[in-house]
Amino acid sequence: MQFHELTLFDARKLLDAKEISSVDLVTALLKRIDDCDGDIKAYITVDEKGALAAAQKADDRMANGESTALLGIPLALKDLLCTKGLTTTCASRILENFVPQYDATVVEKLKDTGAVILGKTNLDEFAMGSSTENSGFHITRNPWNFDYVPGGSSGGSAAAVAAQMCTASLGTDTGGSIRQPASHCGVVGIKPTYGRVSRFGLVSYASSLDQIGPITRDVRDTAIMLNALCGHDPRDTTSANVAVPDFTTALDQYDAQGLKGMTAGIPKEFLAVKGLDPDVEKAFYDSVKQLESLGVAVKEISLPHTDYAVAAYYVIAPSEASSNLARFDGVRYGYRDTESTDLIEMYKKTKSKGFGDEVQRRIITGTYALSAGYYDAYYGQATKVRSLISQDFSRAFEGCDIIVSPVAPTPAFKIGENMDDPLTMYLTDIFTLSTNMAGLPGISIPCGHGKTGLPIGFQMMANRFDEMALVRAAYGLEQALDLKKQFPEM
Amino acid sequence: MKITKKDIEYIAHLSRLEVDDSLVDKFADQVSRILQYIDKLKDADVSGAELMSGAALDTNVFREDIAHIPPGPSVTLANAPERDDDFYIVPKAVG
Prior knowledge:
Chain A is of the alpha/beta class. Chain A has helices at residues 8-16, 22-40, 48-63, 105-112, 155-162, 179-185, 219-229, 249-257, 268-271, 278-293, 309-324, 343-354, 357-370, 376-396, 422-427, 433-438, 467-481; strands at residues 43-46, 74-78, 116-121, 168-173, 188-191, 211-216, 263-267, 297-301, 402-406, 442-449, 455-462. Helices cover 40% and strands 13% of the residues of chain A.
């Protein structure tokens, strides 16, 4: 086995046994990036020098007898997370040369534990999109087939894991932006409960929906990453001060008890969605059968307000975005238009030259929804629908431990296919965005391949702060499906 | 809801955007279609429903009232597009 193929867990074992060094591992992955990323373009920035220096430091710590779960492990970060001294662009021209003066809390945690940051990955500009085609720099290609999108917005992070150009990565998920690209690239991605992971240093898109989470090769690695990322942070007032379990014990729980005693709900409204691809439907029901064979009781449930979810989301998210992105006005950081002679003109020209089309479209939609005379009809109504969606889930979880569904209605689509039709693109988020509205955790794990050979993901959602149920059930299904050794031929 | 070219220009002004002329018609069409879809929210029966503006736990957050030393202008102004020592420079704001 080559070093770049190692899971986080296996790399840890070899590092601890001193069979490999972190420098060996990082060197192998930098070589892999060099070989593959010219085609895939998952990265915006590769920090070769910083990564090798951090790897050397990790090796020194290990030589002194230290061992933490992530010590010396090479990771990639979505370029929406602030990294001190390392360019953080949000895939936007407006922040092309922005160098943060501080680390996001999650970055600080990873660095403290000795993880190695390989670089920053591509995304839809400011995380606005479902295909990574909205990047201000370049399109990322799906490692399984270069004609297809990797999904988005964390498309670079998912593609980097699938193409084995990092051991694991971080993404962010506002309406499905970890789970959908994980599904399209055949890797595991989890959006933790809102408040589980600090958002300090994450450049905000829609603050009430955004959440950071890991993208990994398998479920065990997800549990290990969650252990490193979760926890209360006083610097984020929405960070939850609740106990964090050792998520790897959910794997032991599965090994000891299987999935017996668990109940899974299938929302009838999800499976009635128009345009559900037959391959996706088949892979979903095959996985449900596997869950049943593992002892899970499966039943139909109802989430009656599902039909309003996309509409409510595309009021709330752009509304928050229109406020959050007002800060990029050319005064304190980022690009500034230098031809303007007065302040208002400078704001306008800076933003319109710096932001891409989708970002401007969402700012306009959000400003409209918040403007005088429309606020109650749009934003007010959407926040009420949001509470109804949240109640739907609360009721459903009274009778089940997890809710299962496809991740996206289709496998990855072709590059360019949905670019002129933003609404069609928005509708692809139907299965994922409700969990963001309700603040719930959700995971995507690979569950098969469509006729085109592209991967298909299976989604599980759980009650607030019950990531343990997700890890346990996902680990069980992963064992049963035995797909985790499948990676694209490069 | 049908959005006109004039609406886009007005909302763009409120948003402090200067949408390129070549994009105004396209945005008017796309935003109209997005809003037409969003209009389905009007059919939702929200009687008695609470406003839900976030998903955080409903707890107040307090901290000790302790002063911290700020990082200073060399850090806070490090990314300024234009500065004069400890000050940002901006185009003229008043006549």
